[in-house]
């Protein structure tokens, strides 16, 4: 993944943010180009590493398309942090994908917390390449941080929804568009969403809380496909919300519970309701003429 400040399609929405003219600096960087983050990180006390390619399927080679950028990109950023004396903490955006790709189904009485780690062998056997990339990247980050005495904090959000800044669809919001069309990209009867504003706040709290440590899961409650359809139809009667595909069989479920006690300890007491997040997602999509 290469980012260039000259690519106006990827930067105009950032430069339009309040205060961007005074406080925002953009740097060219490439996850696979070692040392390309040095200018951006120089002088910083905290580094947020949020970049990683996202895809359910790959075109040809999962190692090249997903795994190398995720793992090597993470290590490149961390290695640069060891060279910059001002850096005191690194906050890595991982994923619930690195927490849970269970080999056995979990039920409504099971509780998932930060002690859960995805088995990479299981993800590889199932050809869940994105899951594998996030799992390997987080594992590599913890190993590198331990060996180099880096104060590393990891956030593990679920599927992120809510208003978008950029003028194009990102992966997680595209899932909402697919659901609006009656499709089921994850082949599941149940979903969990976490609002982007809550995820952003968790990152800020991880920065501001000196005692923050380890991993922090942040995810939403279980909702069914029918719940999603009803919410979208209620808020947007002008949109044609398709019924879900009735031909889908052997659907997976995510009816287990997720413990949010640790992320709440950062001072996040209330989370954006799923209904509000879905509403604001579609409002944002309509504003940008994406639906």
UniProtKB/TrEMBL annotation:
Record-annotated NAD-dependent epimerase/dehydratase domain positions: 20-213
InterPro entries from the entry?
Epimerase_deHydtase, NAD(P)-bd_dom_sf, NAD(P)_dehydrat-like
Give the GO molecular function terms.
Answer: alcohol dehydrogenase (NAD+) activity
| Pfam short name (any one) | Epimerase
Q: Which residues cross the membrane?
A: none
UniProt keywords, alphabetically: NADP, Oxidoreductase
Family per record: Belongs to the NAD(P)-dependent epimerase/dehydratase family. Dihydroflavonol-4-reductase subfamily.
Provide the protein name. Answer: NAD(P)-binding Rossmann-fold superfamily protein
Annotated source species:
Arabidopsis thaliana (Mouse-ear cress)
The lineage is: Eukaryota, Viridiplantae, Streptophyta, Embryophyta, Tracheophyta
């Amino acid at each position: 993944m290469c980012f260039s400040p000259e690519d106006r399609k990827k930067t105009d929405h950032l430069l339009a943010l309040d205060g961007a003219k005074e406080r925002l600096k953009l740097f060219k960087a490439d996850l696979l180009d070692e040392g390309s983050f040095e200018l951006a990180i120089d002088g910083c006390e905290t580094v947020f590493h949020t970049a990683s390619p996202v895809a359910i399927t790959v075109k040809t080679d999962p190692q090249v398309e997903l795994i190398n950028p995720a793992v090597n990109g993470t290590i490149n950023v961390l290695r640069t942090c060891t060279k910059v004396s001002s850096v005191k903490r690194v906050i890595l955006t991982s994923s619930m994908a690195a927490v849970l790709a269970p080999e056995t189904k979990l039920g409504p009485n099971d509780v998932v917390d930060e002690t859960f780690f995805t088995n990479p062998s299981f993800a590889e056997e199932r050809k869940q390449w994105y899951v594998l990339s996030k799992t390997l990247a987080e594992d590599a980050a913890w190993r590198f941080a331990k060996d180099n005495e880096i104060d590393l904090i990891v956030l593990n959000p679920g599927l992120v929804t809510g208003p978008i800044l950029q003028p194009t669809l990102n992966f997680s919001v595209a899932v909402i568009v697919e659901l609006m069309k009656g499709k089921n990209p994850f082949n599941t009867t149940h979903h969990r969403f976490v609002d982007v504003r809550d995820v952003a706040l968790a990152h800020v709290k991880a920065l501001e809380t000196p005692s923050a440590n380890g991993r922090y899961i942040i995810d939403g409650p279980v909702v069914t496909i029918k719940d999603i359809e009803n919410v979208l139809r209620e808020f947007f009667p002008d949109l044609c919300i398709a019924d879900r595909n009735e031909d889908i069989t052997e659907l997976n479920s995510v009816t287990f519970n997720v413990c949010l006690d640790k992320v709440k300890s950062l001072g996040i007491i209330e989370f954006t309701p799923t209904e509000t997040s879905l509403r604001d997602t579609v409002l944002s999509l309509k504003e940008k003429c994406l639906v």
